[in-house]
Amino acid sequence: MRLSKEQAAQVPRLYLAGKTQSEIARLLGVTQPAIWLRIRRVKLGRSELLQLTRTTAKNFKLEREAARLKAQLRAAKRLITQLQPSPYRRSVLTTLIMAAFNLTQGEANAVVGLRYAAGHKSNRGSQILIDMMRGHFSQYPNHGFDSMFSAIRHDMPARRAVAIDLYRQYFKRRSERLALRSIEPKPQRRKMPVQQEIDQMWSIDFMQGALQGGKKFWLLTALDDCSREAVITKVLGRRSAAAVIESIQLLLTLGRTPQAIRSDHGSEFTSKVYGEFLAHANIQKVHSRYRTPSDNAYIESMNKLVRYEVLTRFEFKSLQEAQRRLDDWQLRYNFVRTQKVLGDLSPAQYAHLARLSGLSAGQPSSVRM
Asked: For residues 323 and 196, is the Cβ–Cβ distance under 8 A?
């Protein structure tokens, strides 16, 4: 039978008091071999056992004192929290407590009921934020704090108040921001490649809309990069690779087979089943660069028109109503809306003439009606 910590601590004390092993076993309610093993395991003389007993007694006193101090700390924390519910105002007390009682920031926070790390400044997070702000101002030196904050707030590692302090410290002067532009020039935008044939390259993307009740839905869009013709405008309850494959498969059955399809790095376009489908259909899969919508500018431009002319203009009660509106818009866009890049022709007109004459989107002036 194993002894508990309290029983093991009492064995030396009773042994020094002259108790026999059988008497100690009877007092502690354990077997005599357990007491014998404990005494044999200690292997100490009478003086060492006496010192062990004194140390054990001191440990018990210290444990009781620590428990008493913890109870007092809980009571003080509860009282301070009730008297001052605002964490911001309680944080003001930490400085006074640190100076009066020579405590650290974390210990003072524990007294007033704040997180241990509250008030600590992270040098690493501040440096990351400074680098992000420097990169933004190197490209847009005329921007102020609000424009900068709205651009980087999703990736910033600190709160707005910290960003304001760093902005006032490092980037408040416009002359300093202009100096950054000469150090880090604005990167050149990569131009979209001109496609020479119909169905040579399609661009595909997802965008989001909402019904009257606030329920979100997804819209799958795709166009031909050569003729700018909208080939897919499909409303979906949720985005999935299966929905993308179904939409492309429908066009394949109608005789539209692209040589390549360009997309971003969404999970639907990077999934294994989507890649296998394109490989089986002998279609090349092309991805734009990460976080670079300009690499897919054609579809982004069309999505902007869909947003302004359909999604923000009408209210939809159901997905079917949204699909009807988008079908009407697709017909007008493909057959009625003219574009300068196509020689003031509509996408359907340009695609028809391009198939007949073998002309490309880079030669709109030579297209004849």
From this structure: no
